[in-house]
Amino acid sequence: MDSSTISPVDSLSNNDSDSRHDNGAAATSPASPRREAEGESPKSSNRGQRVQLFAELGKEDMARIAAYARCLRKARGEFIYMPGDCADVVYVLRQGRVKLSVLSGSGKEVAIDIIRPGEIFGEFALVDDSLRSNMTQALDDVSMWVFNKHDFTHLLLTRPKLAMSYIRLVGDRRRRMEKKLSDITSKDVSARVCELLHELALGVSESETVARDYLVPLMHHDIASLIGASRQTTTSVLNDLERRGIIELGRGWIRINCLKDLQTYGAVLLALGVQTFFSFMSGG
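Above: the chain sequence. Below: its structure as tokens.
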């Protein structure tokens, strides 16, 4: 989908609801859960505990920053950039979710993170003039701000609050990466799958209700990549969760039937893992 011509400044106060664009989607999925309003400012977005780039900025700062940006929309399934593309801009996600992936030496896609509203991506453009080494794909219908990298560097140098938010966001990503590495060695695959699905579901909506459906538009190999497990083992865990009625599996999507059940089951698995560890240690 082509970039939008809507002014970023106007979009801060625009209350129109988002439109749906299912063309170009990689897989067929059921109706998605409610999304935040298309015009919602990224500073008012709150997804889990992740750091929001514009969270600490006031209206005056936001108006000045928005003057440097243009708006871009992509339909679900569309790529925002690919490896080898020129890295001359950075993106701040307004709405939806974006999958960040790399290509292995064999050409296999490896998902490494899911970008949420209020987060920056493509920021390696700020480091040097190298071409893109990763790729990003819209998991929902998404909208984002696009900044020329030189303009964004200027904003970081002249807006201390923005610079501090950027530092916190980078630190938060480093902390999540360290946690992922720790989980690979300390938690079994079942517990890691439950934890990831729970985290991704919370990224859909701020409110939790028993009747709400939570849709995760990812393939099995994406889940496996994000938790550092094999696809075969991950598929076995997902099939088990479906047999228990906790999730429903489709072509390119996973629906969480009850978030509370998923959280409870994940906690039980984690407790069993800790108990097994101490039993092993005491037996030694």
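Residues 8-174 form a domain with the Jelly Rolls fold (CATH 2.60.120.10).
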